[in-house]
Model the fold of this input.
Amino acid sequence: QVQLVESGGGLVQAGGSLRLSCAASENIFNMNAMYWYRQAPGKQRELVAQITSGGWTAYADSVRGRFTISRDNAKNTVYLQMNELKPEDTAVYYCNAKRGPLYLREDYWGQGTQVTVSS
Done:
């Protein structure tokens, strides 16, 4: 069982920046990919960014150019650098890890960290 612990959330003014961290209890290099999702009140959880074990990244259209996902394999940690924050970025942000083949996929979630952007 992989444990994921997010940190770095908080309250920030629009235009500001935050960096979220996701510390894993196991070697993240063994994960297929690491993901950041978010869920705003009354909305479905949405994928924000992902990074594969090979370093390939992808972003939701709403955050591309403002957010950057990265990983430090030595620290088993994934980051989400969020710049030019907007009130609509307010949500609980979750770290997710997926491991294994499709027929035996393991799916792990952190507890979430609140990000609130004031206008």
Summary: The chain has a mean pLDDT of 95. The CA atoms of residues 71 and 113 lie 18 Å apart. The first strand starts at residue 4 and ends at 7. The two ends are 40 Å apart (CA to CA).
